[in-house]
Amino acid sequence: MATCTHLDQIKVDPPTEFAGCEDCLRIGGTWVHLRVCRTCGRVACCDSSPNQHASKHAAATDHPIMTSLEPGEDWSWCFVDEVAFVVEPG
Fold this sequence. Notes:
By secondary structure, this protein is α+β, with helices and mostly antiparallel strands. The protein has one domain: Zinc/RING finger domain, C3HC4 (zinc finger) (Herpes Virus-1, 2-Layer Sandwich), CATH 3.30.40.10. The protein contains 2 helices and 5 strands; from the N terminus they run αββαβββ. It has helices spanning 22-27, 53-61; strands at residues 34-37, 43-45, 65-68, 75-78, 83-86. It has a 5-stranded antiparallel beta sheet with strand order 2-1-3-4-5. Strand 4 (75-78) and strand 5 (83-86) form a beta hairpin.
């Protein structure tokens, strides 16, 4: 079973309040689903969104882990290890 080897790079918890994809808000874009970078806390749009800002952020910064901000979802994705997983609270 594949595992994420970048858990040590989780530095922030998902925000409880956010307005939307930070980049889309700046350029007047739209998004489908939102993700949060677990290294720096940037809120960005998913790969189903027109601008795919979460993937672009991960590639530009080498921040490996994004977590879904969708209600009822608790999964994360490691771009480096290409594995989905749940981060246990604590």
